[in-house]
Amino acid sequence: MFRLSTRSSYGLRACLALACTAAAQPMPVADLSKDNQIPRRYLEQILNAMRHKGLVNSTRGARGGYQLSRRPSSITIGEIVRAVEGDMDAIVCSVPETRSQNCRTTTGCVSRRLCYDLETTLLRVLDGTTLEDMRMEALRLQGANEGQSVAVSLSKLLPI
Predict the structure, then answer these.
(1) Which of 22, 144, 26 is nearest to 73 (CA)?
(2) CA-CA 20 to 30 A from 93: which of 25, 57, 77, 120?
């Protein structure tokens, strides 16, 4: 069963928190860590990786912190996962060049098509779902209106 890693889940949770608050001021790492139950040092590493990929901006100083670098509607979940994990590995059966030594055939393989379909569907969902889609769902689950900026309890909505 596919499952997001803790690192990806925390990255998604942090980005979603930034999208939900939509603050004019950067959100301090300490607040982001506490509000979303993410270990601070681990969160700093994740945010740094996302900063290098251009997903978040950082501001130093007493009023410093992090903000999304783009609108939530232009950031996909796939981008967040790749920023914190690196490129996603192919499902071994879908790429003949990476098949395991246990694979006995390259033609007529019953599972190759299934693995290919799983991989393309997963990538389509991750790359076709935006942070705005997730933000809207979080607000809906909290009973908030579309225009509201709400501190959503993401640790309950997005468990790892």
Answers:
(1) 22
(2) 77
Burial class (CB in 10 A: 0-12, 13-18, 19+), 48: middle
Report all structural domains of the chain as residue ranges with CATH numbers, in order of start: 6-147 (1.10.10.10)
Residue range 118-151, pLDDT digits in tens: 888 989 999 999 999 999 988 888 776 655 555 5
> Long-range contacts for 56-64 (Cβ within 8 Å, ≥24 apart)?
56/15, 56/18, 57/26, 58/26, 59/26, 63/25, 63/26, 64/26, 64/28
pLDDT tens digits along 91-102: 666 556 666 665
